[in-house]
Every structure is written in C-alpha cells, then in structure tokens.
Amino acid sequence: MGRKKIVIAGAVTNDWLTFPQPNGHDLDSEPWRDRDTSIVVRRGGVGLLTALLSCEPSDHRHEVFGVRSEQLENRKSAEFVHSILDMVPVDNEQDEPSVFKVERLRRIRNQTSYWHWPQVRLQKIEDPALLLVVDSSNGFKEIAAGLDVIRHVRPGYLLYKTARPLGTGLLWDEVRQGPWNEEGVRDLDRLVVVVNADDLRAEGIELSRHLSWEKAAEDFVRQIGANGRLDSLITCANLIVRFGCDGVIHHRGLDGTPPKLYFDPMRAEGEFIKSHLGYMIGLTTAFTAGLATGLVDGKKGCIEMGIRLGFAAARRLAKTGFRINPADGAPDYPLEDIVRDLEPDPRLASVEIPSAEITTGLSWSILEDTMGDPAEIARHIVQIGPSAALGRVPTAHFGRLMTADRQEIESFRSIINLLNEYLAGPQTRPLCIGVFGPHGSGKAFAAVQVAESAAEGRAVGKLEYNVSQFATLDDLASAFQQIRDHTLSGSLPLVFFDTFDAAFRINLGWLRHFLVPMQSGRFSQRGQTHALGPAVFFFISSSFPTFTRFAEPIDFPNGHAERAAFYAAKGPDFISCLRGYVDVLGPDCADPRTDRMYPIRRALLLRALLERRAPSLRVGERLTIDDAVLNGLLMVPNYRHGARSLEMVLAMSTISGKKEFERAALPSEAQLNLHVDGKAFMDLVRYPRLPAALRETIAKNLNSIYRLQRRKLARTEEDRQTLDRDPLMAEWDDLDEEIRESTRNQADDIPHKLRMVNCYMSREVKGRLPVNAFTESELDVLAEREHERWNAERLQKQWRSPPREGKDRLKPYLIPWRDLEQQWKDVDRATVECVPRILPRVGYHIYRLGTGGG
Question: In the predicted model, is pLDDT for residue 11 greater than 90?
C-alpha cells in the first residue's frame, strides 16, 4: 500500500525574529544583554506546516505536497512580513544561549497575502488523503488559484485552518461546501475546521476564560449560535475549537451529535503556556500539523486521534520554545522535536458535553457525570490519593489548597483572574476582595493560598489582622501604616482583615472606616493623609456563610429594621468597593438540596490531615483506614467547628505510629461530642445504612432470591415439605422481624462488598457502561464476604454451631467458609450474583471505579 498523500496550500507568513547577536569567536565581547540585535526570517502558515509534516521519518505513512523553499525566495522583503518577534534567552545566565522565548510580539497590519500551492499538476496527485488549506486574515490577492486547488483535488478530508474575520470571504464560501469526492459530489462530512477560542471571542461569542471546563462548555453550547454571521461555521461537520494548550471542543454541527470536550484535568485555559515559556507563536500551526497526521489515516476515530496528536504537538512547541538552528546560528522552530515520535498525550481526558440538558439550564459537573456517587469517590480519594482517584476529572491547585468542586474552582479562579489583571499594570489603590463561608470552613487558609498562588514570583508581604481585636480607630490606622511601609519597601502587601464584620459601636461598625482607603487608596493618621499604594485586601467574614447573606438586607423593603441598620453601617457603600468575592464552602454540607460535593471536599481535607498527622498509615499512595471509620469521618452530617473539628477528631484518635486506622483508635462517644454528634458518628461506624425505602426494597428482592435458591436445593418431596415449615422461607410480610432486619443489613452491606471488587452503586451515570455481571473470581470474594457477615451477625446474637438446631439458635452452616458445604456456598453466591440485576429495579447501577471520562 502506497504512502498516503497530504496536499498543503494557502497563506505563508513571514515572521521577523530579533535576537541578541552571537559572540562567534570574539571571547572578549559583551554579555548577550548588551550585544547588537540580529534579525532572521522564519516561515509560518503553509511554509511551517510543510516543514513540520515533511520532517517525519522517511518510513512514515504519508507524503507531503506543500510549498518548497525555492518558491518563497522572492518573498522575504518587508512587504511580506506579518509580525516582528523580540526574542530573549530562556537562561539569562548563558553567554551563548540555545533556547529562546518570545518577549514581545508586534503584528504588522494590512500586509499582502499570496496564495501558495504545490508546484505540481494537482491532477497527478492520486487519491490524496488530506487537503490542508490555510487562510489569511488579510485575504488573498490570488484567490482564484486557491479556489482552483479546492475544486481539482479529491481528498479524503479537507482540513481548513481559519483566520479572522471568520465565516466570510470567497475562500470560506468554497471550503464550507466540503471537499469534492471521486464521484464529483461535495462531501460535507469530510470537512474539518480549526479555530481558536480567542477568535470566537473576538467575533462576539461570549466564552469564559480560565474558570472551569464545565463553564467553558456551557458557554459554548449556549452562545455558539448568538452570532448569526457565523452560522455557516457553526453548522460545519467538524469544528475544532482550541482553548490554548489546555483544551479542545469538537463540535459536530451537521448531524446534531453532542459536542465532545478534551481537556487537561489539572489545568485551565492558558495555564500550560504560563507554566512554561509564556506566549509562543505557531501553536495553532503545530496543533494543525498533529491533527493532519491523525486525519490521513481516514479510519473511524481518526479525528479524535488527530485532536490528541495536535494537542501533544502544540504542547511540545510551547514547552520547547525556539532553538538555535546550526545552519544559520539563529532561533528557529525545533521541527523534529515537535513531531518526532508523536504520541497522544495521556493527560488529555475527554467527555461528551450534554448539550441538550445545558440548553435547558442544567448546571453540569464532569465529576458527577463521569464518576458517579460523590460519597464513593470521596472514599477513593482518602484511600488511594486524589491524583489516582480524580485523575480524569477537573481539579485545581492553589498552593497547598486542592479542590475538585466546580463551584469552588470557579470562585477561586475568578479571584486569580482579578489578581492577575490587577498585577498587570500600575495601581494606586488596593484591590478589595470579600471572603465568606461558614464557621470553620477554612476561609483564611483558602484566601492565603489563592493570593500567594496568584502573586507567585513577586515580592510580597503577608499581613494578617483580626479586626475584632481592634479597640480604637488608631489600631486601624496603625495597620494601614504597616501596609504602607511594606509598599514603600517594594513588596506587594497581601492583607487579610479577619472578622471585618465585627461590631464597633454599632453592628458592622468597622465598614465605614474602611471606605476611604478602599475608594481612594489613602488613609489618615494623626491629622496627616498618606497614600497606601498598591495592595490586595481580603475581607474575611466571621458572621456570614455567603456573600448573598451578607448583602441580603439591600433587598429588604424600606422600613425594615435590618435594612436600615445595614445602610447605617454603610454596607452598600462597602459592597460597591469590592472587586470580587468568594464563598468558601468548607467540609460540611452547604445546602442539603444542592450540595452533593461536600464528601469530596471533606475527603481532600481528610487525606491531607491524615498524611500530616499519621504518615505511618501510608503505604505507597494508599492509606490504611478501616471502612467503618472512614464512613463515620466522611458521612457524619457536620462538624461543630468545621475543619478545626475534623482536625481535632484525628488529634484525639490514637493513630500516631500506627499502620492502620482501626475502630479502636477512635475516641469515646462522649469525647466525640465535643466536635460532632457522637451518637450519629458512631452509628455510621457501627451500622452504615442505605436510605430506608431503598434498603427495604432491596431486602425484599434479596429475600426472594434466597428463597428461590433454597427451593432449588430441595430435591425430594420430603425436602420440600421440610422447607415449607422453615420460618426463613415465609413470605416477606410473614417473616419474623429479626430475619427481615438481617436481610436489610445484607442490603446495607452491598456498598462495602462492591468496594471489595473496585465497584460502587450509583444512580445512572450517562456515558458509562454499568457492570451487568461479576466475574467468577469476584463472585468468590463476594460470596465469602456475605457468609462472614452472616456469621458475625449471628454470633453477636449468641447463635452457636452444631450439634443441635432450632430455638436454641444453632445452625449447621454457622461455620467457616472453607468448611461450608457447596450447596450452602451456592446460596451465598446466588445472593451476591443477583445484585447487578436487582439494583436497576430500584434506579441504581453498578460501575467500576476510575474508568470514566475518556
């Protein structure tokens, strides 16, 4: 089979790179910072794509028909320059640097763009797998030639790299109809279009930036049709939208298939570039080269493979930067480093976007959609660590703070965005941010971690004040003077005013005294006015769980006492000076109706506390903790003092130096009452239960299976008559209550059994395949567990082993599993084998942990 062919045509961009002149052999020359500047021309567009796709190994499966260097020799003049890039060495200490990054980009407006195509007869290129067309933001002076290429080539796919303005022009009008096939028919399904999210934003599409992947996807679904001029773009078969080097949306506008999101779970848009060399030119071109490499295969799934390869190629370029080309001693694209041995990036997760539900107003969570029950995920986080448990869902790290809760992620990143914008230019007054949350939710810790994360790399001074301890206005003025001293020393003050909402003469009495510094950046002390300069003020509430609750009196009717008091304290004026706020949710349930993520927030905190308090529990990445203890720690309704109470429960437990966190290590119920409802906690440890209605229904089903299996054992009429007299064989409503409760306990044990085989039960999770049957080895494990559970329950109630039966509570199968007759093993086996069939009857399914999200 011959090598597959790629035809490349379209715009070539010339980029002038300025860089410090090399030393050569002059050993006495000045360091690079003081040297003269050199300029080199580097190709972009079609020229760069041709070079990238041509430098694959010779045994690669495709052959490239692009633009040769000699075709471009007469187009190096200033007339064809599209941008000027000032390059600086990555390592400032090297006299002869080899890696460069972009310090400044200057685009040249209204430059000429010419159409370039392979200098061969297009009809001679038989069965090309791909036609790659590169558009120009300046349009083309020779567009007729471009249209002719599209009309004469018969590719498997037509890949189009867009340029602004989007969705207009003669070239787009030709491209959007799809490639011509061998039968002379336009094939709309074979059109793939690459566009940057920033270009969509520039065209008026409101796409959030650097908040959460769910928010970006929701904005895309809800806003993509808002610009009627882009309708031909939105309805094309395959629209590939790049969100920097961190995410991609594949929108299929022709058949209405839900779009698909590809994303880095640990980063938001823009974070990969920021964490490496900063802004880099050519990333979309590198992505397009990788996408083309996948498309040439032409088989089912080639677009997805192309997206993954494009993602990997763009990241390689962003990470590598420009390297010195030995041929001319100047910075150049590291072509081979970008495409050599290109493989999909394993960090790239994917999920189908529920567009139909989003258009109805649904707030989407990737974590819930891909992994199911938050309580089971929480157990996994504590036991095997957050990296393994949450590796395929979005998470965010801010210093030592980690969260997987979408609401928290978006709140914290909103503050990061505010801080980044504030730090980007000169400022004369402080940036003011409110921080709210329940008592003990970790507000101060979260504020510090987010602030330090945003200010990383800058000289900062951290100042913390407890406003409730201020006795006079002089105390506040002294605090402002300390802030000013830090500013004058050249550091950025990060200031945390804890309990800013404390009373001072009146309720919320300190608010009015913050107003002038917040509004003007100035304060008075002993009759003199001073400038504060740039600073970041975090106002941390001690009384309000949310900003909405703090601002609530504004909406009260006139004459309402609380409204009047709020206005008297200058509450509305204080709010007007805030540039943002964050609600810190903490480890407890914020709202029983909507907050399903609290076990995960609690698990992340618990894991961190256990690693610090009892490192001996850790074996590799796994923490050894009894299931029942974990159930109590994660599922107790609330901790009296939030995170501090959780920390105190661990401090009261005897786990120092221990290899396992056992039940016996817990403090007494009376001691637990200091920080939790001790009885509720210990009930969760001793008797973990399903919801009442659910356990009752499952228990009835389990009882039916048990009776059916027992009847299979009755081989003679005498056996059947004996069985009919057995009280265990009565109908559910006629069973002794002790037996019914035993069966309910069996239902309660299902989640524990499922965890033994790396599974969990949950309401239906879209896009995931449920477990319809256990493997033979899993059935052996589960059946033995059921027998052990049954034995333990009976022994606690003073049942004993043979030789006698009957009312003296003796049973022939109250013996170890290994000694049990096979027929009784089959009974236990039947009662666990049926679980995947029983649960769907009550709206639940079984899923394997850690297999969602692509």
Answer: no
